[in-house]
């Protein structure tokens, strides 16, 4: 197995505010611990208040920082996203780092707004969230947006006749991860010169709780596979932390990162025309004025 890098940058984040979707578990939680340890104010955005409260307690204990809190957010409901952003902008005067970490695996399910769960949560929910919080990111510049994706993007291209769904749930997931990459690139172009940097991160294949959406037999099988071949959540969080703190990463605005360094995308995933078309289509789908 390829040896993965650990972040060696010791930069502090005192006075910085970090918002992490899905920060209650997996890579998001490990990232929260790492950044809280560096002095950042951490806001965990999660749809389950009880899970979020438990996670906040654990993050505080592990990081030895009390500057960690949670806010309710359901990315599968665009009204919830709008309400969250309104509340956030009223309460929080800074947003230095936004980490779009929450995600759904390849399940056949639907959001409250009628989108496939994969595409609705992984792309559209984060698309609306980032756009509504963009004014605060610009005010807090230099700021960063880090969006988690996956190397499985390479197995699909976008179908603008039906962005939302594919008959095979795994391919819907692949499309959503490709959409994350295009989103990150277009965000970098649209905010160029405005102090907001954007990065897409593949954390590796991580031993996390994504199998909870599947049957007991599948979960047991995947536990064995993950134990043999997947990396820990601590290692998975390293590239996210790297993009949050590294001055070197800031030189690659709009870049795709793997193992704490820029990585090369397939040519079709670097198509500026497709990225722009997806951005405009996403604006229509979420009714972003």
Automatic annotation (TrEMBL):
SUPFAM superfamilies: NAD(P)-binding Rossmann-fold domains
Pfam name, any one: adh_short
Superkingdom of the source species: Eukaryota
GO molecular function: oxidoreductase activity
Keywords: Oxidoreductase
Listed InterPro entries: NAD(P)-bd_dom_sf, SDR_fam
Family: Belongs to the short-chain dehydrogenases/reductases (SDR) family.
Name this polypeptide is given: Si:dkey-174n20.1
Organism per entry: Oryzias latipes (Japanese rice fish)
Organism placement in taxonomy: Eukaryota, Metazoa, Chordata, Craniata, Vertebrata
Gene (UniProt): si:dkey-174n20.1
């Amino acid at each position: 197995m390829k040896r993965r890098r650990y972040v060696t940058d010791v930069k502090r984040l005192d006075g910085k505010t970090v918002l992490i979707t899905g920060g209650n578990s997996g890579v998001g939680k490990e990232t929260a611990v790492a950044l809280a340890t560096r002095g950042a104010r951490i806001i965990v955005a999660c749809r389950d208040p009880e899970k979020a409260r438990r996670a906040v307690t654990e993050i505080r204990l592990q990081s030895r920082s009390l500057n960690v809190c949670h806010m309710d957010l359901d990315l599968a409901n665009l009204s919830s996203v709008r309400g969250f952003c309104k509340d956030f902008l009223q309460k929080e005067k800074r947003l230095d780092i936004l980490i779009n970490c929450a995600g759904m695996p390849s399940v056949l399910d639907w959001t409250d707004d009628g989108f496939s769960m994969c595409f609705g949560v992984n792309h559209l929910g984060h698309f609306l969230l980032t756009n509504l919080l963009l004014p605060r990111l610009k005010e807090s510049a230099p700021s960063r947006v880090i969006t988690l994706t996956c190397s499985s993007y390479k197995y699909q291209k976008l179908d603008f006749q039906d962005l939302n769904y594919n008959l095979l749930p795994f391919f819907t997931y692949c499309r959503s991860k490709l959409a994350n990459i295009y989103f990150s690139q277009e965000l970098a172009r649209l905010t160029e010169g405005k102090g907001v940097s954007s990065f897409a991160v593949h954390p590796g294949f991580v031993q996390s709780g994504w199998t909870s959406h599947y049957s007991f037999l599948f979960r047991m099988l995947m536990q064995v596979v993950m134990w043999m071949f997947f990396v820990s959540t601590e290692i998975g969080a390293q590239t996210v932390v790297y993009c949050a703190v590294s001055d070197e990463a800031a030189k690659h605005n709009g870049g795709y990162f793997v193992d704490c360094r820029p990585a090369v995308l397939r040519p079709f995933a670097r198509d500026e025309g497709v990225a722009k078309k997806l951005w405009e289509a996403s604006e229509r789908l979420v009714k972003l004025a």
